[in-house]
Write a structure and sequence with these properties.
It is a single chain. The chain is globular, with a radius of gyration of 18 Å. The chain is built from two helices and 17 strands. By secondary structure, it is mainly beta. Strand 2 and strand 3 form a beta hairpin. About 5% of the residues lie in helices and about 40% in strands. The protein has one domain. The strands form four sheets. Strands 1, 2, 3, 5, 6, 10, 14 and 16 form an eight-stranded mixed beta sheet that branches. A four-stranded mixed beta sheet has the order 7-9-4-8.
């Protein structure tokens, strides 16, 4: 389990960002680094292109009674990368500003392309930003949204590429979403695009972090002004009871038609 970097914002810029959001609380665990307020001017110029085509390999929602952790793993094949660090922007999802964020650069290898479970990776320095900052390339969400800038060091990228492909593992700690009338809870996860093209979306998982808390059902759709709302396949862990005849058919996320403005809406039900 990684230590999250809590947001102890002090600058006027970040205070304005949080004025209509949940007040951040300090995580008791010692963070690997402290997030720094980003006071760099917003870059009005076109975003720099990346030397590779990333892919969102997995979105994982981890539910507990007092928190939800959203994990996004973004594959970074080496592509045309030879040298230099990368500055990437990731927008916040919903329902609110995160309590804390942890970002790691890990290596992926093998046919599945999954990072090794024992690979804690290299910590990625984060800067909160009211929108995409100068020099950063938008990776998750839209440039005008609030989020964080990820600073990927050249040395960490080189180590990751020596073992295969690199992947950014972004873990976001949230307060549990409010319960709907039917007992469900909703999350919005930001998806990615590079040079205006949406990134491929891989697996979607919803899991319980507590033994006596069970995820009974989960569903996911793309959401946005142009989104195709056809249900996407979701894996529930531990395996949920069969819901055959209850839920409509679904398609694998990588087969869904994506638009640059699409987000991922996840709905899940839990019971003790």
């Amino acid at each position: 389990m990684f230590a999250f970097a809590p947001f102890g914002f002090a600058s006027a810029i970040v205070a304005n960002l949080l004025s209509n959001a949940v007040r951040p609380s300090r995580d008791p665990a010692r963070p690997p680094q402290t997030a720094r307020a980003n006071t760099a001017p917003v870059d009005p110029s076109p975003m720099a292109s990346l030397p590779m085509l990333p892919r969102i390999a997995r979105v994982r929602v981890e539910a507990a009674r007092d928190r939800v952790v959203v994990v996004e793993e973004i594959d970074l094949p080496k592509g045309d990368w030879h040298t230099g660090g990368l500055e990437l922007f990731a927008a916040f999802g919903a329902p609110g500003t995160p309590i804390a964020i942890d970002a790691r650069l890990v290596s992926t290898s093998g046919p599945s392309g999954d990072p090794r479970k024992d690979d804690v990776g290299d910590p990625i320095a984060l800067d909160p930003a009211v929108r995409r900052a100068k020099g950063a390339t938008a990776l998750l969400g839209r440039p005008q949204m609030a989020g964080v800038v990820l600073h990927l060091r050249e040395s960490a990228l080189r180590r990751a590429f020596e073992s295969g492909r690199a992947a950014v593992r972004l873990r976001t700690l949230l307060h549990p979403p409010a319960e709907n009338a039917d007992g469900s809870r909703d999350l919005v996860v930001r998806l990615g695009m590079v040079s205006g093209q949406p990134l491929t979306l891989g697996r979607i998982q919803v899991v319980s972090l507590e033994r006596d808390l069970r995820v009974t059902h989960a569903s996911a759709t793309l959401c946005g002004p142009e989104a195709d709302p056809f249900p996407l396949s979701v894996t529930v862990l531990p395996r949920a009871e069969s819901s055959e005849g209850v839920w409509p058919p679904s398609i694998p996320p990588e087969m869904a038609v994506r638009h640059p403005t699409d987000d991922l809406c996840v709905r899940f039900w839990v019971t003790s």
